[in-house]
Inverse folding.
C-alpha cells in the first residue's frame, strides 16, 4: 500500500517520471498507447480531469469515483481482481482506494513491460513510487490544472500549451469529444471563456516572470 491512501470522491494530482536520463515516450505511438491504457485501466474507477505527457514524465489530474461505483466495478470482474485477506480487514473506503491504486499500478507496470519489449530494454522504466497530492479545495484544483497545461511551456518545448499535442488543453479550448470529464473544471473556472482567460493570464504572468529573471 502507498503511504498516502487514495479516497473515493477525492481529487489528486498524480505524477511520475522515468528513471535517470531515460524517456518514457520516444515517439507518438508511445503517447497514444499510454493514454489508451490509462483510459482502459482507470475509466471504471476514476475521472480524468486534465493530463499532460512529457518525454520523460507525466501529470494527471483525477477524481476518484464514489465508493459504491468502485466496489461494484471490482465485483463485476467475476473474481479476477479479488481483494487479498489483508485488504479485506480495511474499511470499505480504504478497500475502494486500494482498488484504484491497483488499477494505476497495473497501468504503470503494463506500460513499462510493453515499452521494454518494444525497445528491447531491461530494468525499471519509471521511478518506484508514483507520487500523488490530495487536492482539497477549488483554488488548488485550478492551480494544478494550469500547472499541468503549462508544463510543456515551463520545460521550454513550446511557447503556448496549444502547441503541445499531448495534453488535455485543446480538448477544453475547442470542446473536442474526449474521454476527460470537463464539467468540473469548466465549472470551477466559471465556464469555457473564463477557463481560457485564466490560461491567458497565467501565460502573461510566466512570460513576465521570465523577462524579469532573464
Amino acid at each position: 500500500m502507498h503511504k498516502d491512501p487514495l479516497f473515493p470522491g477525492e481529487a489528486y494530482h498524480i505524477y511520475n517520471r522515468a528513471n535517470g536520463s531515460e524517456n518514457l515516450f520516444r515517439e507518438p505511438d508511445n503517447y497514444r498507447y499510454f493514454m489508451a491504457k490509462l483510459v482502459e485501466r482507470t475509466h471504471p474507477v476514476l475521472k480524468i480531469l486534465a493530463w499532460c505527457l512529457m518525454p520523460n514524465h507525466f501529470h494527471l489530474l483525477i477524481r476518484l469515483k464514489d465508493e459504491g461505483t468502485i466496489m461494484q466495478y471490482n465485483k463485476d470482474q467475476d473474481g479476477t481482481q479479488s481483494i487479498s485477506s489483508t485488504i479485506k480487514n480495511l474499511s470499505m473506503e480504504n478497500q475502494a482506494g486500494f482498488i484504484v491504486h491497483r488499477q494505476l499500478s497495473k497501468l504503470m507496470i503494463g506500460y513499462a513491460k510493453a515499452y521494454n519489449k518494444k525497445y528491447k530494454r531491461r530494468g525499471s522504466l519509471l521511478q518506484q513510487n508514483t507520487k500523488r497530492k490530495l487536492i482539497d479545495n477549488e483554488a488548488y484544483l485550478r492551480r494544478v490544472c494550469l500547472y499541468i497545461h503549462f508544463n510543456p511551456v515551463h520545460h521550454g518545448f513550446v511557447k503556448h500549451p496549444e502547441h503541445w499535442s499531448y495534453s488535455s488543453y485543446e480538448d477544453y479550448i475547442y470542446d473536442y469529444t474526449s474521454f476527460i470529464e470537463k464539467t468540473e473544471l469548466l465549472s470551477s473556472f466559471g465556464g469555457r471563456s473564463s477557463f481560457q482567460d485564466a490560461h491567458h493570464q497565467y501565460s502573461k504572468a510566466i512570460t513576465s516572470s521570465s523577462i524579469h529573471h532573464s
Notes: Residues 199 and 205 are 10 Å apart (CA to CA). The mean pLDDT is 91. The domain at 11-212 is CATH 3.30.70.1290 (Alpha-Beta Plaits).
